[in-house]
Amino acid sequence: VQLQASGGGLVQAGGSLRLSCAASGLTFGNCAMGWYRQAPGKERELVASISSYGSTYYLTSVKGRFTISRDNAKNTVYLQMNSLLPEDTAVYYCAARRFEVEKYEYWGQGTQVTVSS
Which of 31, 33, 40, 46 is least buried, going by the fewest C-beta atoms within 10 A? Predict the structure, then answer.
């Protein structure tokens, strides 16, 4: 299984970025997908997730600013991030789990998002 994340970068506060995660080696349509982030000195946290049937979850601090979506035809999950804040600065990781498994099983390599004030 491979999860290839891309789309990170440096952006000013108030700007936008779109992260992508291309998956291979799994039955993508049967997997829940998530985006985690980890800032220096902080615990990793789940930012957003989307189930195999499209149900979504968002961390409270990103609600209304971030949108997670998936394209099952392309085996890809996206995270659209708008109105970015300096506190959104972190390494963002995509993750996948089979719908019958509780914990995320597969992880991408991470992409750096830096928001300047």
Answer: 40
